[in-house]
Amino acid sequence: MNVNAVINKNRLKTWLIMTLFVVFITTLVYVFVKAFGYDISFVWIALGFSTLTSIGSYYFSDKLVLATTGAKPASKEDYPKLHNIVEKLSGDAHLPIPKIYIVKDQSLNAFATGRDPKHAVVAVTSGLLEKLNNVELEGVLSHELSHVKNFDIRVMTIVSVLVGFIALLANIFMRNIFFGSFGGSRDRGGAGTIFLAVGIILAILSPIIATLIQLAISRKREFLADASGALLTRYPEGLASALEKIGKDHVSLRTANNATAHLFIANPFKGKDFLGMTALFMTHPPVDERIKILRSM
Question: Would the pTM of this model clear 0.70, i.e. be above it?
């Protein structure tokens, strides 16, 4: 399988899902507005709040992630091998050298954060450094730097804001239902009643649907970073071997939480992978599937 073909395929799928997200939000707003008649003021209030939230997320999300994961700066004196690999890969990828952090934890994991390549951070756990060889570590870091180069962190920040916006819209809609603020919908006859019923259903289901779309995008970005990382090192087996060790590791990251789980190279909640239909709720694609694709390149 051609690496560039994999990258293009996953990039296309991600943007198709993002388009679906926008269409879904537009439909949701339309139904809510029709259910409330001519009163659209609640939409602008929600949009203003969402905009302020997105600005805050854009500038401070990396600091929040580092604080919640307990990551600390990794000095070059203490971690020369880590710095050498990151510097080499950054040069090969034509990226500014990111800040490098360490998470004191025996689990095998890594993540990247930051709003753009000039403000990027790459972090690895101490367990990863101890248990991976140089080639495997290079594979993991190439994956994380690919997230930086592909602007995945920015994409996922935007998606997270959109998910929050949908949840806020649904919450405002239900509050207006409970408080009887239906605008002009009471005078609109059958159509108003239908829109109201559909609006209630969407208000209940939309946060779940939005989360599923968010997770789908997250999984596609992981596939894309795998392929981009393999292209960067020209050695897919390095990342495949690293993922094999990570998949066999059963130590959960102590500071893992649902808000940051999608940032890591692998699910930080070890032993809690979903099966069957609930695979829709996974933040990452199955490790075995990722290894299979890498070894087919």
Answer: yes
